[in-house]
Amino acid sequence: MKPIQQVATRSLGQAPGLSIYRHSNWFHGFLFADSGVYLAEKINIYLAEHWKVFASRNYFDRAGVFISVVWSGPLVFISIVTVVSSLITLCQLMVKWKRAELRHRVRLAHDKEE
Question: Known InterPro entries for this protein (predicted)?
Fold first, then answer.
């Protein structure tokens, strides 16, 4: 990252520790999904108190079944897809790295013979 970009991103309020994740949409999606699941209970309580404003029936019970199915279920699915996608990318990177290492070893052995 260029120095001017670092200054610009930090001046906009981005934490320095998160600057490595600036281009990682999967990481931000994962944080969003996990925070949404974490807040589902509080959202359920709030919606249970104010259901007359936007609905004709109270769907929000104490167990939170409706909010779990409609809100948390898709977010958990997104989190699982994100983790699996990250593991696939990691495995591909490990294979690429190992192939490069083996090519390097062959090149070194070939140079020693000469």
Answer: TMEM18
Query: 107 lies in a domain?
Result: no
User: For the chain, what is the domain count?
Assistant: 1
3-class secondary-structure state, position 75: helix
Asked, for residue 15, whether it belongs to a domain, the answer is no
Residue 96 pLDDT exceeds 80: yes
Residues in Cβ contact with 22 at an 8 Å cutoff, skipping those fewer than 6 apart: 1, 9, 14
Res 7 pLDDT > 70: no
Q: Which domain holds residue 30?
A: 25-89
Q: Of 90 and 32, which is predicted with more confidence? A: 90
Helix, strand, coil percent content, the chain, rounded in steps of 5? 80, 0, 20
